[in-house]
Amino acid sequence: MGEKLTIAVQKSGRLQDDSLQILKECGISIDNGKDQLKANASNFPLEVLYLRNSDIPQYVQDGVADIAIVGENVVIEKQKELDVLQKLGFSKCRLAMALPKDVEYTGLEYFNGKKIATSYPNSLQQFLDANNLKCDIHVISGSVEIAPNIGLADGICDLVSSGSTLFKNGLVEVEEVLVSEACLVANKNISNLKSAILERLLFRMRSVLAAKNNKYILLNAPNNKVADIIKVLPGMKSPTVLPLAQEGWSSIHSVINENDFWGVIDQLKLNGAEGILIIPIQKMVL
Ligand SMILES: Nc1ncnc2c1ncn2[C@@H]1O[C@H](COP(=O)(O)OP(=O)(O)OP(=O)(O)O)[C@@H](O)[C@H]1O
Ligand SMILES: O=P(O)(O)OC[C@H]1O[C@H](OP(=O)(O)OP(=O)(O)O)[C@H](O)[C@@H]1O
Ligand SMILES: [Mg+2]
Predict the structure, then answer these.
(1) Whether 176 and 244 share a structural domain
(2) Which ligand 1 atom is the nearest neighbour of the CA of 56?
């Protein structure tokens, strides 16, 4: 049997669906059995292990899994030797310090000598050290936001995304400790054979991610506006310009980045673009 790459993904929880979805978008079919803890891809040399998120960095460092999809926050917290190969654009959140809303926060020194509840003691300790602060860190594994209300701590350090859990518990975010998103990580000593499989997987993932971050754009413009419009539209190499059936008009095709999107659209309109169409890209092979 040929060599296979082993990937760990979260067994259940926030990361699982998006992790399996990105593998699917890479054209990889996994035969499972959701209750199975181990499954094989039918059309790619990949074996999937379903593990607890918090155990994944250790498994990858030990080489039980070659690669994994895991939150950067967990990689940082577990302080394992791993390569972070690619950010994946989902499960975006931040680790933040929060206090009861009636506290008058005066700045970082406020935390000196305070008791802070967290599930991320290492990340918190690093943040405190970097700011020359000393706190009493109280480690709990979940429901951290309840700690100040039940007299367990003065403040918390926990993950935030929408902020609604903080709000519901009468807390206010006051400092950002780190930002995180799901990423693809790898063991530092992967064999050459497995590295070759990993390169193929990474190539597919990057094509999928690039497609998500970009849109195909088509528009019409009078020929005398084409030069100005092209200046606003970089494209993958350069925009395509085709004549319209109507004399004196052209159709311009290009690719624009999601981040620049609305700014570019405004510029295009100002420069005389008409009939602008935006189309999602399925894969973008770079
Ligand atoms: N509110 C949130 N918004 C976005 N991403 C989040 C949020 N909370 C957690 N995450 C990200 O999702 C990851 C998994 O969170 P989840 O709550 O599913 O698992 P867990 O309970 O931390 O871990 P385990 O699988 O070990 O039980 C976190 O490590 C973090 O990267
Ligand atoms: O800012 P928000 O959008 O409200 O998200 C933040 C909450 O999400 C996470 O908990 P989760 O829902 O994963 O529950 P858990 O603690 O049981 O893992 C995190 O620990 C926060 O409590
Ligand atoms: Mg959680």
Answers:
(1) no
(2) 26
Question: Which atom belonging to ligand 1 lies closest to the Cα atom of 12?
Answer: 25
* Tokens found for residue 221: 């413009």
What are 17's strand-pairing partners? none
**180 Cβ below 6 A of ligand 2:** no
For atom 1 of ligand 1, the residue with the nearest CA is 161
β partners of residue 71: 182
Q: Separation of 118 CA from ligand 3 center, angstroms?
A: 12
Do both 24 and 76 map to the same domain? yes
What token pair was written down for 259?
Answer: 């981040």
- pLDDT of 181-197, one tens digit each? 999 999 999 999 999 99
Q: What is the pLDDT of residues 218-262, one digit of tens each?
A: 999 999 999 999 998 876 678 999 999 999 999 999 999 988 888
> Are 244 and 271 part of one and the same domain?
yes
Nearest residue to 40 (alpha-carbon basis) of 49, 30, 50: 30
Residue whose C-alpha is closest to residue 275's, from 229, 236, 237: 229
Residue whose CB lies within 8 A of the most ligand 1 atoms, among 56, 159, 168, 169, for a mutation test: 159
Phi-psi region of 13 (alpha: psi -120 to 50; beta: other; left: phi over 0): left
Dist. CA 279–CA 283, nearest whole Å: 12
CA dihedral 181, 53, 69, 92 (to 10 degrees): -10
What CATH number has the domain bearing residue 250? 3.30.70.120
